[in-house]
Structure formats: structure tokens, C-alpha cells
Batch of 2 targets.
Target 1
Amino acid sequence: MVNTDNNSPGFFARLKQHHIYRVVAAYAVGAWIVMQAATRVFPYFGWSRAVPILIIILLLGFPVVLVIAWMLIKPTDPAKQDSWQRRHWKLGAALSVAVVILVVISGFYAWRFSKHHTQLLAMVATNRPTAVPVSASSVPPVSATTIPTKSIAVLPFENLSSDKNNAYFASGMQDMILTKLADIGDLKVIARTSTAKYASHPDNLKIIAQQLGVATLLEGSVQKSGNQVLINVQLIDANTDNHLWAEAYQRNLHNIFDVEGEVAQQVALALNARLSQTETARLGTAPTQNPQAYDSFLRAEYDANRAYANFKTPDFEAAVRNYSTATQQDSKFLLAWSRLAQMQSLMAWTDSPVLDVNRKQLAAQAKQSARRAEDLAPQSAEAQMAQGWYRLYVLTDLNGALSAFQAAMELEPQNAEALYGVGTTYYHLGRFDASAETYQKAAVLDPRNLNILSQLAHTYEELRRYGQAEQVIKQMLAIDPASLTATINLANVHILAGDLDGAQAVLDAAPASVQVDFRYSLRQVELMLCRRDYTGARHVLLSAVPEEHTDLDRGQVEEDFGDVEWAAGNHEPARAHYQRAAMLLEAALMQSPERARGDLSWVYARLGRTQEALAQAQLFLKDRQAAKSVQREEYALANLAAVQAQIGQVDEAITGLDRLLAMPTGEFISVPLLKMDPTWDPIRKDPRFQALLKKYEKFQTDVIPAPAISTSAENGHG
């Protein structure tokens, strides 16, 4: 029967009768509150991905709520309840029960999902290491306006595994995430070296971010148990301490390969960084799909980091062994081949600090590794880096190395290691201005890398910009007050600039751990010779070398003893020391010819063995020239000029000094040093020598202010 009741209320009136407008308003307000709370709270628990899902549920729930409200909420006037609603109230009740059941089930699984993560947070709070004290003055202040918003540093990941031997895995995950982040050209990414000494979860984030020159910090922890891995990461705005994004990844060793790419993509999204198609593809590509190879690679990275920090042969050998294992387990593991080539090339380098290795064999292996990386992906940054280090350290093909490093930079502009390679190649080519500029760029990406800062300081020294070198080395000492390299180099900068009091102050302020080192003692003696403090120099040399030092070390001490006595006018005792030095250096010549020849040529000159002195000095120069490094050649030229001055070849010595002073050779030769160093006493009164000093004195640049210097041989004589 058709209802013909014309008094039946209209649609909008029925909405009002059922209080639908109130329901819509209440739902809108409630949904807005829920979404605001979720966007702030969910990331803290690692539920960032749940926020979009919640929004979809709220949108889909809107019509469901309207239907339920229509069916369950009675009109204001019971007499106007329509028959359809009375017949279907049971359906509405059933729907309500179903919604309640779904909410309960969802809550149960959300609780299950977050339970382990909550326990992890508790473990972090309980086991969080004490933050490394950091002074706001550790590094020259960085203006907040100079820090790009799209900048990030990854702090060391905390190892939460019960087995502390899994520390390599946490460290390796940090490295892999950094490697992926460096692929993003729109991000400024700080290299690992600069963050290595910070705590995993420090309290002073703002100060650390200022020291590193970044706006955000990524913290993380890794818990590995057997085949299962839990990785927790959180991106923090260093200025506000707000969590911009966080996530927990529960994986096993068979599906862990894409985590670093996912993290990098989420960081890019959180920081609004642009991603090109090529970068997106690289982020989505795992370095290997072999879990055993991946594990071996992470172990190798851990060994390599220790090797670069300590320069101990066993650490280098362990890194090579594990990189090799990774390449055997996955012959297409490009990154492993690249890192293996770099490590082998460094160890094969003639001047490498890694001793007791078969350099010839390592050179052949480095060639194979670099070639394998190039065969796998010739246009990749990894292959170019492998070629760069091989050509620099093994072939001494400086132009080839420069081309390779520059190609890597074009592919990865944020790669601090590639910048360091370019700067180092420029340095050996003698292009010191370009080297300094490149090292400065590398220092922006790796501001607490002492190696980069040390090389930058050496470059300034070559350019005789001693004031700038001093500032860089002071920055090194602010980072590591116990750095032997920085201490003796800073003292040397003051000596080169003629500031002997400043050099003495640097050495006096050195910590005890530095003052006991052999190289510190040699720098002290050099300073005392310039001061003509022979008594003090003798005292230092008497305890300079323990018995376990090499023939080369003991030969250098005997040589310095001879220099002290010779400058003091005691030539017979000096000759006795030089005789002992000659025997020790001749023995060292068999093991380390390039390091011993320079000292031996000087000792022969003082002993009057003129032809042998010239022969060794010429061989030393030839060896250095074979390295095709302008910087290494300079020292040999300075040594030859000193030998010539000693044996009476004054014209040749003056010509050599003229050439050196006209070049950027300030690391070895400066006008203030020539005025003080007893080495040049044999020609000091020669008018040509004095004219040379006057000629180049006006070209000394950026010199540290120094008091007047006395060159008298009376101070401390005897």
C-alpha cells in the first residue's frame, strides 16, 4: 500500500529530527582531535605509517556513523518515528557491536605491535650511555643562518644486543644508512668520522648540531638476536628537540637489505629534500641480496673504521679479509669491491703507516679489485672511487686519480671522501690553492675529521698562510686535545712563522700522553736548536727513544745529538754521534730506503763524506720525484740545499733556496726559519744568503706575529 501522507516531513527536516547535524559536528571535532594527537604521538612510538591509515579509517567511518545515527537515534517526537527505523534498530545495534569488536581487535594488534618497541624504549632509557661532555666552544661558533634546514648527521647507533660482539652490526647499519643518505644531492650529510666520538643518545643535541653544522640528527639503536634484528631510528630537530619522524624495523637477515634505503627515503620526505629519478632508483637498490655477504661486509666496515682510527696492521688485515670474504660470497657486491680496492691501495702505498705487509702483492690485488668494481658498474661512484685510490696510491697517476675522484663527485656531490680525494690529488700536484678550497668543502661535510683538517692545515703551511694554519690546528685540538699530530704540527707552524715563544707554549700545554711520545721529543729538540738551548736539547734526547724503537728512530736521535753538539761547537763529540747514526741509518736503509736516505745524506755531509752525501741526497730526490708529488719533492730539494751548504757548494745551495722560496714550499722553508735554524750556519754570513732573506721577506704572508729573534750562538752554548 502506497503511503500518500502529504504531511510526512521533508529530508532535511528528518535529518534534524534524528540529530544528524549534531552527529556530523561532533564527529568532525572528534576526528580532528584524534588526527592532531596521532600526528604528534604516533611517531614517538614508531607508528608513522599508521597515521595515513587512521585518516582513511576516519573518512570511511563518516558514512557508517551517519547510518548508525539515523537508525539508532530516535526523533525528538516519538510519534514521528518512521516504521523503517523501528524495523531496523536491531541491524543498527548489530553494526555497533561489530564496530566495537573491530576496534578491540585493532587495539589488541596495535598493543602487540608496540609491546616490543615499548620494551626497547625502556632498555634505551636504562642503558643509555653517559653523553660525552661537549663544550660550546669546542668548535668556532656556527651562525644559525648558515645551517641549511636540509642537513643531517647520523649519530653512532647503539648496540642493544645481549651479545656485545654484535657491535659491528650496529656500526655497520649506521654506515649503510649514511651511504644511502650521501646519495641524496639535496641533503647536506655529515660523514661518519665527525660523529664517531659522540654518544648514541646525547642530551646536548643543540650544541652537537651546531658543532656539526646541521639542523637535524638521526639517532638509532640495533638489537640483533640470532637471525632476528630490530632497528629503531628517530629523526630529531636539534633546535627544538622535536621528533620529526621515527620508525621501528623488525627484520631478519634475509630481508634486511632494503632498510637503509627506506630510512633514507623517509628522511628525505621529512626534510622535504628533492629526489631525482636516479637518486630514487639508487635508494631502492640494495647493495646485495646475500645475507652472508652483507654480514661480512658489516664486519669489514667495523674493522676499517678501527683501522683508520688507530692505524694498526691487524685491523687493516681484518678489514681486507672480511671485504674479500664478502666479495667471494657475492661476486657482484659492488660496494664491497670498491672498499676492498681502497683498503688494498692504501696498504700498498709507499708512505702508508701500515707496516709489515707485502706491498707488491697488495698492489696487484688492488688492481684486480678496482678493475672488478669498474666491470660491474663503470659509471658508478663506487667504481670511480676505487679507481681514484688505486691510481693515487699505487700508480701515482695523479691526473688519472683526479679525473676519477671528480667523476665520483659529480655522481655524489655530498661525498666527503671524494672531496678529500680531489683535495689530496691537488695537494700532490702542487695546486695548493685548489687543494685548500676542496679541503674546506670536505670539512663542511666532515667537520670533525682530523685527517681532513690536518691536510687543510698542511696546505695553508705550503702557501705560507701560517695564521690560517694555526686556526685550523686549534680547531683540531678543540676536537681532540690529546692529538699528537695537531700538537707537533701547531708547534711547527709557530717555528716556521718565527714565533718561538708560541711554539714553546704549545709544547708546554700538551697533555702527558703526548709529551711521552718520541715525535714530540724531536719537535722539542728542533725548537731548542733554534733557541740555541743545547743543554735543554741534550736533556730531552737522553730519554727520547726506548729500546723497542727501530734503527731509523735511534739513528734520528743520534743524528739530533750530533746536530746539538755541532751547533754548540763540540765537533769531536758530534762526529761520534754521527758515526753511530750512520751505522743505524745504513741498517734502516735496507728496510725503508726513502725514509732513511735524507737523514743519511745529512750525516755523511757532517762526517765529511762529500761524495756519499751528494749521492744519497740525489737518490733521495730521485725517489721523491718518482712519486710525481710536488709536495714530496720539495722536502728532498730542501735537503739537497742543506747538504750543499754543508759541503761548501754555496752557489748551488743559494740557487736551490732561491727556487724553494719562490715556490709555495712553506711547510719546509720560510724566511724566519732560515734566520734561526743552525742548519744554515755554514752560509749564514754569506752576502748572497742575506740578500736572499731580504728578497723574500716581503713575500711572507699571513705570518703569526712574533717577537724579535736573536740568532746568536751564545744562548745555552756549551
Target 2
Amino acid sequence: MKSSAKTPHRRHPPTGPVLSRRDLLKGAASLTAAALSGCAPFTDNFASLIGRSDHIRRENEKPGTRDWLLTNTRIDPVTKYRSPWIEGYASRTSVRAGERISFHVSTNPASPFTLDIYRLGYYRGAGGRRVTSLGPCRGEIQPDPPVGPNRLRDCAWSPCATLTIPEDWLSGVYVGKLTAAREQLQSYVIFIVRDDRRADFIFQCSDTTWQAYNRWPDQYALYDGGQDPWYCGPGVDVSFNRPYGKYCQILDAPLSTGSGEWFLWEFPLAYWMEAQGYDVTYISNSDTHADPHGLRRAKGFLSVGHDEYYSLEMYQNLQVAIADGLNVAFLSGNAICGRIDPRPNPTGAPQRIYGRVDYFGPRDEAMLKRFPTMAKFPYQSPPEDQVLGARSNVAPCTGGADWICSLPTHWVYAGTEMKLGDRIPGLIGWEYHGEPAPIPGLAVVATGTTQDAPAQPNGGVYAATFYPGPKGNFVFNASTCWWADGLSAPPGYVRPSVYTTPRGPDRRVQRMTANLLDQICVGRPA
């Protein structure tokens, strides 16, 4: 495997120790006043905040609460994934202030219920702030949808509550905590409030992937072909018009029921960024699909966690934005792998249904041996590595490893004291990227072999990469779903343990992330 090459072009690289607020205000370390106006620096106590926009700092100074956490959940053992006692979904994945969103809830047996809505962030460690409460609402048993073409389960439930998003709700991820009066059982609904303001960072939630793995009501994920519970071929559709069941993959997390994968892989990054006061705004995968111009309002775009499913429009919109100077950090694994075709549901609501129609990149015979149903696709989609910097769809595609430093002179390691061969235990997993792309200037900053269990190598090789964009920008690929585990452990967080076990917040991962985010601000001033 080729490893290497030149360090990507950069401007004003961050070097040396972490700067204090006083040092920053004096203009230390070659940072210009323009750069200072757009970034919040990384500090030991998460308290030094300098930013052009004060939105995040002011929001997180408001009183927080841990009441957003579920405390009483139950999963139907027959279906294995759903909670019929109280479950629901939102009419939109992404909504702006001033727009309306409805909530569709079923209770079986019928029970009144309340819906308490929280914005998730840092909030002095509480992790959330209650923004409103709806109800009590009259609960009723809503019908399970019939099995439609391509195994589609598309609910047409009556709305139980409707809300116009207030103008003062800051962009973020919001959860509605559903509580049934009958037995006080709980689950979530989840949605994103987006805006159109200029910001330093766009945090893209990986909600097309959340939905792909949603088995609600019982084996109706994108991976359920009717016989094989991990089917990887075409001919299966999924809908956002249904509750998120209990997460179905590598850990048992009933306390996240109704929230997709948000709490598992993405919330630790949001919690940490908001603790730092970084100027961040949030979007859905659907926004990347439908709003290419919206990507240009930020200096940096963040792909987070398990960001597997992209439409061709998402791929093209991101590729064009990079060519136009957008910095991108794939703090994710298995990114840009399966190609989907978002389309309206029968009522005309856009992007509520999709199927898997292809895979990005060329056929990989080793992957086809492992997942034979992948052979049914045409493989006519563009290569993912031309955006990502490495292959996503590469065998064996699952496994774990230590993060192993392979280019300690790169600016991403500034202040970490990492040397060649130094390791961050268990940070790579459970899916990763490999085979670096032949992009001029691409650098491999970490690489190593993967394993199925300690001392059981599986033949995989991961590669974390940088490559330079055409306008002084860059693209970073962390090559792991678990990057955010190294940043924080918010309330309720469940650490994964499969293949390897990451070790939680690590000063070196925090510093590398701060270097990335600060370099994004410095390298492309507003």
C-alpha cells in the first residue's frame, strides 16, 4: 500500500503549546486578527472563548438539564426493536425557524402522553436544555403500515402535535422525549433545526445512515431483503415516516430508542465542540442533497460518525464545494459508500423514501465474496476516494485498530507530542477507510492493520489521510466511526466494544481536532 507523500499545502499552521486567551488576544503565533475573529481555541478547561459569532457560547450559558435522558424504556421481545407502548416520528428531518413540523405518535395500549423537547449541546455538562413541552396529548393506537413495494414500511399516522419552530431556536439537534402516562414508558423523536447563517462549521448529521439501519417494526431495514438479515443488494426501500427502533448493530442501547445513531457516534463531537464555543451549525444529509449553495456559508464541513449513505447529488455537491474552497473533515468511517435515491413519499413530502441503487467506486471482488448480493449493482457511480481521500468500500471493511502515527511532522500533530509509531489505543473501528487515493499531495498521517479481536488480524489496512484542495483548503479523513469517542463522554454515552475498545477522551485526539478546526478557520478567512 502506498503511504505517503507530501504534507498538504496549508497557511499559518498551528504549532507549539495551546495558547491562552491572553496570548490569543495579543495575536501570538502568527494568527491574524481576521483568523481570530472566527475561531474558538482548544483549552484545558474548555473556557476560553473567542469567536466572531457568540451564538454557541450564549446558548450554552443557558440553564441545562439532564431530564432529556430516557429512564424507563421497554423493547418488545417479539419484534426485538420497537417500543409499541410509546413511539413516534417527526414529519421532517430538518426544519428552519418559522417552519412547521408535526409529530406522529402511537401508544399501544392507548395512553395520554407528553412531549418534552430539548436542544442537545454542552450546557455546562448537562448535555441538553428544555425548550418547550407539548401535551398532555391524546394517545391512540396508530396502524402498522402495510408492506409495500420493495418491502417499504411507510406510516401514514395522524399528527398528534404540530409546532412552528420559534425564531429564537438555535440550529442544533433536538429530541422530543415521549412519555406515556399509563406506565411512564419513554422513547424519542428526533429532528434537526437548521439555519442559513454564515458559520465556521457545518456539522452534517448522518441521518440517511440512521434510517438505513432502522429495523422498525421488525426486520425492515435497508438490509432486510426478506430472508437475509444483512442483505446488501437492491430492491429494498426505507421511509423516514416511521419511528426509529432500538439501534440494531454493534451494541445494545435501548436508552437511545427513537434517536437513530445520534447519541452513539455523533453527540460526543457536538458536546465537545459546543463546550469549546466553536461556531457550529447543523444540517441533515437531506440538506447536503437539496441545498448545494448552503455548503458555501461555512469554512468547514464535518462528516460525523457512521456516514455511509449518499445520493449522487450529495457526492457532487460536496465535490464542487471542495473545488470552490470548502475544507472538509471526515470524522467518520464507512463514508460515501452506498448510493441512494431520495424521493417523495405518496403525499409529496420530499426525500422521505429511498433505496440503495449502487455503490460508489469500482467493483471489489473481495467485497463481493463477503457480500455476494452486492454483485447485483452496476457499479457506475463515481469513486468515493476522489472526495474522501481513500476507499470506503474495501474488504474486509470492518475491524478495529489503534491509531498509529505515521507522519509526526504533519501539523495535525502539533502539540500532541506524538512520535512515529505512537498509538492511541482502539480509536479505529468498527468501519474504516483504506487504499489511499492517487491524489497529488495526499499524505497518510496514520495507518495500521485491523483485527477482528485482540491478536486476531483480519487482513485490513486503514489509512487516515489529508489532501490539499485547489484554494488553500484541505480534506481530512479520520478513517474511523469512533473519532468522537476520543473527544468526550456526554451524559448517557455508551462506549462501544467490538473488534477493539476505544479508551474514551484522549488529550491527543482533542488536540488534533482543535488543530483541524482552528486550521479551517485560519486557512479560509471570512
